[in-house]
Amino acid sequence: MEVKVGPSTLELVEGDITRQDTVAIVNAANKHLRPGGGVDGAIHRAGGPAIEAACRQLGGCPMGEARITTGGNLKARYVIHTVGPVYRDGCHREPELLASCYRESLKLASANGIKSLAFPSISTGVYGYPMEDAARVALKTVTDYLAHHPEIERVRLVLFGRAAYEVYGKALQEL
Ligand code: AR6
């Protein structure tokens, strides 16, 4: 599924973030930027040790912020690491922090001349963010950014499994 936002394209696909051919892929990292499970584990396994070495130099990343490293052996040239909120009850700035992850990652892309990037569904695995709520925040934040930043040509949201893809598809139609 894809929609146009001005000259830019926002695309939803079901798949594996590590196999994307966008210039950058986004990692759902932890604040230590140490290899973990989920998307993070998959990216480090597929990208090789150069990503971990680059992460070590950065000394971590606060929640809601983003950092950029090489993509190592991945097709993507860069990995943008962002740290999503751990979901408690939705009343602890979770929506604001999640929106910030998408926005800060997009800002890093713009600053580095990256014209295409792929996001996973940040915080909806180990960090427990309800998928429906996360989808609304993700799609609103990305579309708002693209409306003002035509330099980003393509944003792809890569959903792991049919169920996640359908939740995002419904949220996009409602937007
Ligand atoms: N491609 C795309 N999406 C995936 C993939 C994949 N290969 N694998 C899982 N997902 P998570 P979080 C989906 O747990 O909640 C790590 O240990 C998955 O179904 O990767 O932000 C870090 O080090 C889910 O919907 O990230 C942190 O400690 C979504 O990606 C912590 O997990 C995010 O799940 C971050 O937790």
Describe the structure concisely:
The protein has 175 residues and is an alpha/beta fold. Helices cover 39% and strands 22% of the residues. It has helices at residues 38-47, 49-58, 94-111, 131-148, 162-174, and strands at 2-5, 8-14, 24-29, 66-70, 78-83, 116-119, 154-159.
Order of helices and strands: EEEHHEEHEHEH
Measured on Cα atoms, how large is the radius of gyration?
Answer: 15 Å
- Under CATH, the homologous superfamily reads Leucine Aminopeptidase, subunit E, domain 1
The CATH architecture is: 3-Layer(aba) Sandwich
List unreliable stretches of 5+ residues.
none
Helical stretch tally? 5
Question: How many structurally independent domains?
Answer: 1
Question: In terms of topology, how is this protein built?
Answer:
Blueprint: E1 2-5, E2 8-14, E3 24-29, H1 38-47, H2 49-58, E4 66-70, E5 78-83, H3 94-111, E6 116-119, H4 131-148, E7 154-159, H5 162-174
Parallel strand pairs: 2-7, 3-5, 3-6, 6-7
Antiparallel strand pairs: 1-2, 4-5
The structure holds ligand AR6.
Ligand AR6 binds at residues 16-18, 28-30, 36-40, 42, 84, 120-127, 158, 160, 164.
